[in-house]
Amino acid sequence: MIGLITRRFFQLILLLFGISFLVFMSMHMAPGDPATIIGGPNATSSDLEAIREEMGLNRPVLVQYFDYLGNILQGDFGYSYQTNQAVTEAIITRFPTTVKLAAASMIVAVIIGVVAGIISARKQNSWIDVTSTTFALVGVSIPNFWLGAMLILIFAVNLQVLPVGGLSSPVYTIEGMKELILPAITLGTASAALIARMTRSSMLEVIRSDYIRTARAKGVRKRPLIWVHALKNALIPVVTIIGINFGTLLGGTIITEQVFAINGIGRLMIDAIAARDFPIVQGTVLLVAAIFVVVNLVVDIIYALIDPRISYD
């Protein structure tokens, strides 16, 4: 396990170097000039040239990249072109909101997906199974922005039982929990559908295995047979889906945060892209990439805990 963690750590470093290069080059090849953002609409050509000289924007791109890389190794991710706020500070300010939204969405997805998948497997080919499979297909197909807008229209505008969003209240308060409901359902629906489908197919495979038939023949009751013996072995592929989706939720909250006016990493990233705020974009993308690698490492560790037969030697 220590060897696995060590290998993944070095992979993380190499991956972040590669992603930093691609993002840096992509942003500098995109249309737009950061100097015009910093100088404002009234800046003259001489003002813009002075800004480029001061910021080093008139130097070769590769030279700028290696300067940026050197600063990263010292823990300096630069400053926002718009607000002059440190990138690290901007990310630290927004990241807890995104984690809160992603965690709530994942809880919704896991509860709905696992329960629906197990019930569908137990009631295979019944009307419950057909209904669950249909809802799973619909859940995967519905776009987040449409679902979010419909939930706002129904529960916030017409019924007025839930707030539109914002996530401004502490999560441990009633108001904070109410603010999380609609965004969490919006973001977690697609993941719940994927988890339900994977749980169903995995449970069907495990239920038909020899050791389950043997346990049933020995008189093991149906409930512990399904929820203890079968579920533990069926969870291995489901954990993969949960882990990958949690990383996706952390990095893919852009649309949901826009719809519900949530000031998280996703909204910070999309605003920075629109404004050609290179340091913010580069910092947020590196964060998302690091999260994906760390989440995959955690999934591998959970594999070994669930199934002792798995070895990484």
From TrEMBL:
GO cellular component: plasma membrane
Keyword Nucleus: no
Gene Ontology molecular functions: nickel cation transmembrane transporter activity
Keyword terms of this UniProt record: Cell membrane, Ion transport, Membrane, Nickel, Nickel transport, Transmembrane, Transmembrane helix, Transport
Topology in the lipid bilayer: Multi-pass membrane protein
UniProt domain ABC transmembrane type-1: residue ranges: 95-303
UniProt similarity note: Belongs to the binding-protein-dependent transport system permease family. OppBC subfamily.
Official protein name in the record: Nickel import system permease protein NikB
Lineage: Bacteria, Bacillati, Bacillota, Bacilli, Bacillales
